[in-house]
Specification:
By secondary structure, the chain is of the alpha/beta class. It contains 21 helices and 24 strands. It is 32% helix and 16% strand. The chain is globular.
C-alpha cells in the first residue's frame, strides 16, 4: 500500500481549472520540473503564471508551431542512416523475374530510408492507413527487431510486469493518464512522413486515413512536413452506414483522409466520371439546340457595387440581388449572356434570373467533393466482406478499407498508367488490390510498393489458426488471391447459344461490338501484372566484427577473408548493390554465364554483378565484349550496350594487384563503366 501522491493530486486540481497548463513531459525530466512529473505530466508554469496575471508575463518567445516531447528525437531519427538491407524472398514471391510490383516486410522507417536513393522523386501517389492511436497496439518504435512486449514497455502501454496501462478497446482512446500517448504517436509518424515526402514526384500526392483521435495533430504535422500551402483537402469518408446505439454521445460514422501535395504548383486533382444521377438534373425546358442544361444561382455573397444593379425580367418585373449580395457578372456581361440565351427566367419569364450550364460544357467530369458517401466508395463492412470473399468467408483481418475507396483515391490523384503507388502501412494490401484491378480495367502498368511490419497475429485468432502467423502473411496471400481473381477469364454473357443467336438478330452489330470489347478486356486481364517481388528487411550483409588491436589473433584475422555473412546469397548482394546504386528493386534481373562465371545482369546493361572467384583481365575482356556485341554495321552508339556499372566481390580477386589490374583494364576498355567491389 502506498500513500496518495500529493503532487499528482495537485496537478489534477490545476488541470480542472486550467487544462491547457498541464502538458506532456519528457520521459526523464530533470531540474526544477522533475518533481512535477507524474505519469509523464507536468505543469507549464509560464502558461500558469499568465493565467494568474492581468498583465503580459515575460516568458519564452511565442511562435506558432506544433511541439511535443520527442520531436527533436523524431527529427534525428529521420536523418539517422541505416545499416540494414533488403533481402529477396523468391519463395514468397509471384512471378519474381517479370513482375514490377514490390512487397516489403519490415519496419517501414528503415525501409523508407533504404528506398531513398532508388525511388527519390519517383512515386506518384502515397496512401497510408496508419495506426489511429485508439488504444490498439502499435509497435513502430523505430528500433529494428524489437518485439511487441518491449515496445509496449518502452512506450508506456504496459508496465514491467506486463500489466496493460492503456485501453485495448478500439473504441476507447488512450486515457490522458498515459501521458505520452499523443507524443509517442507523433514521434512515430513524423520521421516516416519526412522520408515519404522525398519519394513523391513533383506532382505527387499523399493521402492519409485517420480518425478523430489524431486528425488535429496530423493536420498540423503535415502542415510542417509538406508545407501548409500544399494542403489539398480534409476528406470525410462515411465508413459506417448504420448508427451505434450504444455510443455515449454521438455515433461516429466517418473517418478523415488528409490530402497533401508535394508541390501545389504542379499538383492537379482529376475530375470524377459523371454519373447517371448527376446527369438527371439536366433538362431542356426551352428546347435549346445546345442540348440539355441545368441552372445555377446568379448571385454571390461577396458584395461589389459594380455588380449590384436592377434586372428587368421578360414579364416586366424588376429584381435585385438578395440583401448583402450582388450578381455574379457585370451588367455588360449579363446582356451578352441574355443575347446568347444563357439566362433562364423560368417558364413564365417572371422568375429571378439563373445561369444556364450545359452538360456538353462539363463532359470532362465532375469536381470531387470533400464528402465521400459509402454508396460511392464503400464502407468498412464492404472492405471486410471483400477480404472474407477471398479467404473462403473467413475474417482474417480487422478494418480493411474497401477497394472502391482506394480506386477513388487513385482516380482523383491522377495516377497514370505507368506510375508508382506506395503504401507503407499496407495492412491487408487493399491498395495493391485496387492497383491491379485498375490496371486490368484500362490496360495500365501501374506499379505498387507495399510495406508492412510483420506484426504477429493473436494466437487465438482465426488467422493464426489458419497458419497466418503475422499480418504480412495475410497481405501477401490477399494479393495472390486477388490477382488470380482479376486475371481469371469471365464467361461470356448469356452463354454460347445466346451469342450465336445474336449473330442473326437486328442488333448483331451492337453485339459484335460488345463481344469485341469483352475480348479486349480479357486480353487486358491476361497481360495485367498480378505478381510481386517480396523483400524482407534484415541486418547488413556485411559482418559486424569489432576488435581492439591487442585482441587480434590469427582466427580473428581469418574472419575478414570473407566479410560477407555466411547465410547471405548472391541474390542478397545483388539487392544491396541495387539499393546502394539507387536502382529500382523492380528492374529485371537476368542470371547468365560468361566465360564460365555466373553474372547477374540488371535491366540489361544497367548493372553487372559477379561474385565468383578468379576474376582476371581475361574475364573482364569477355564481360565487356559480351556487353558490347560489335557488328558489321556498328554505330557510334554501340558502346552504350556496355555495362554502366560492374560489381565484384572482394574475394573474387586473388590479390590486391589483380584487383587493381582489372580496374585499370576496365578504364581502357569501357571508360564509362563504373566498378565497385563489395
Amino acid at each position: 500500500m502506498t500513500t496518495p501522491d500529493v503532487v499528482a493530486q495537485n496537478i489534477e486540481r490545476i488541470a480542472a481549472l486550467f487544462p491547457h497548463c498541464v502538458v506532456e513531459a519528457d520521459h526523464a525530466p530533470s531540474g526544477k520540473d522533475a518533481a512535477c512529473d507524474v505519469s509523464t505530466k507536468k505543469i507549464d508554469f509560464d502558461l500558469l503564471r499568465q493565467e494568474l496575471s492581468a498583465v503580459i508575463v515575460d516568458g519564452p518567445k511565442e511562435r506558432y508551431r506544433l511541439e511535443w516531447p520527442g520531436k527533436r528525437e523524431a527529427i534525428v531519427t529521420a536523418n539517422m542512416p541505416t545499416t540494414n538491407t533488403l533481402r529477396p524472398v523468391r519463395d514468397d514471391s509471384v512471378n519474381f523475374d517479370t513482375t514490377e510490383n514490390l512487397y516489403i516486410e519490415g519496419d517501414n522507417l528503415e525501409v523508407l530510408k533504404l528506398l531513398q536513393e532508388s525511388y527519390l522523386g519517383k512515386v506518384k501517389m502515397i496512401y497510408i492507413d496508419p495506426p489511429y492511436n485508439t488504444g490498439n497496439d502499435f509497435v513502430y518504435n523505430d528500433k529494428f527487431a524489437k518485439d511487441a512486449e518491449t515496445s509496449n514497455l518502452e512506450s508506456g502501454l504496459t508496465d514491467e510486469a506486463g500489466n496493460r496501462l492503456v485501453s485495448k478497446n478500439p473504441l476507447q482512446p488512450n486515457p490522458e493518464s498515459a501521458g505520452r500517448y499523443h507524443s509517442d504517436w507523433l514521434t512515430m509518424m513524423y520521421p516516416r512522413l519526412k522520408l515519404a515526402r522525398n519519394l513523391l514526384t513533383d506532382d505527387g500526392v499523399i493521402f492519409i486515413s485517420i480518425d478523430d483521435n489524431e486528425v488535429h495533430n496530423l493536420r498540423k504535422m503535415c502542415d510542417e512536413v509538406f508545407g501548409e500551402v500544399n494542403f489539398i483537402s480534409e476528406l470525410i469518408w462515411q465508413r459506417a452506414f448504420s448508427p451505434k446505439n450504444d455510443a455515449k454521445f454521438f455515433s461516429n460514422s466517418h473517418d478523415y483522409i488528409l490530402a497533401y501535395a508535394k508541390s501545389i504548383d504542379f499538383c492537379s486533382i482529376e475530375r470524377l466520371d459523371r454519373t447517371d444521377e448527376a446527369n438527371e438534373k439536366y433538362k431542356n425546358q426551352d428546347n435549346d439546340i445546345r442540348g440539355i442544361w441545368t441552372s445555377g444561382d446568379l448571385s454571390v455573397k461577396s458584395y461589389s457595387e459594380k455588380y449590384d444593379y436592377q434586372i428587368t425580367t421578360p414579364s416586366g418585373r424588376i429584381v435585385t440581388p438578395p440583401h448583402g449580395a450582388c450578381w455574379r457578372v457585370s451588367k455588360e456581361k449579363f446582356s451578352e449572356l441574355c443575347a446568347d440565351n444563357r439566362i433562364w427566367f423560368g417558364v413564365n419569364g417572371d422568375n429571378v434570373p439563373r445561369l444556364k450550364r450545359f452538360l456538353s460544357d462539363v463532359q470532362d467530369g465532375m469536381v470531387p467533393t470533400s464528402i465521400w458517401f459509402h454508396k460511392e466508395v464503400g464502407h468498412n463492412q464492404e472492405g471486410r466482406q471483400e477480404v472474407k470473399a477471398l479467404f473462403d468467408d473467413k475474417g482474417y483481418f480487422d478494418g480493411p478499407k474497401p477497394v472502391r475507396l482506394l480506386s477513388r483515391i487513385l482516380q482523383v490523384a491522377g495516377v497514370k498508367k505507368n506510375d508508382i503507388v506506395l503504401d507503407f502501412f499496407s495492412g491487408s494490401a487493399t491498395t495493391a488490390h485496387a492497383v491491379m484491378q485498375l490496371n486490368a480495367e484500362d490496360g495500365g502498368k501501374r506499379k505498387f510498393i507495399m510495406v508492412q511490419l510483420p506484426e504477429t497475429t493473436d494466437e487465438k485468432s482465426e488467422a493464426y489458426k489458419a497458419g497466418y502467423k503475422n499480418i504480412c502473411e495475410i497481405g501477401k496471400e490477399r494479393i495472390r488471391r486477388a490477382g488470380k481473381q482479376i486475371a481469371a477469364p469471365q464467361p461470356p454473357k448469356g452463354g454460347a447459344e445466346s451469342a450465336n443467336a445474336d449473330l442473326f438478330s437486328a442488333e448483331s452489330n451492337t453485339k459484335h461490338e460488345t463481344q469485341n470489347t469483352e475480348h479486349e478486356t480479357q486480353n487486358t486481364k491476361r497481360t495485367t501484372d498480378i505478381g510481386f517481388r517480396v523483400y524482407r528487411l534484415d541486418s547488413s550483409n556485411m559482418q559486424d566484427v569489432y576488435y581492439r588491436p591487442q585482441d587480434y589473433r590469427q582466427e580473428t584475422i581469418n574472419l575478414f577473408a570473407n566479410h560477407i555473412k555466411s547465410d547471405r546469397t548472391a541474390d542478397d548482394l545483388v539487392a544491396q548493390v541495387m539499393l546502394d546504386w539507387g536502382l529500382e528493386l523492380s528492374l529485371p534481373i537476368e542470371k547468365t554465364k560468361i566465360a564460365g562465371k555466373i553474372v547477374y545482369k540488371v535491366d540489361g546493361n544497367a548493372l553487372y554483378c559477379c561474385f565468383d572467384e578468379g576474376i582476371d583481365e581475361a574475364f573482364v575482356r569477355s564481360l565487356v565484349d559480351t556487353g558490347h556485341t560489335p557488328s558489321d554495321n556498328e554505330t557510334p552508339h554501340a558502346t552504350s550496350l556496355r555495362p554502366i556499372r560492374i560489381v565484384f566481390h572482394d574475394h573474387s580477386f586473388a590479390t590486391d594487384t589483380a584487383k587493381e589490374n582489372v580496374r585499370q583494364l576496365l578504364k581502357q576498355l569501357s571508360a564509362e563503366t563504373e566498378m565497385k567491389v563489395v
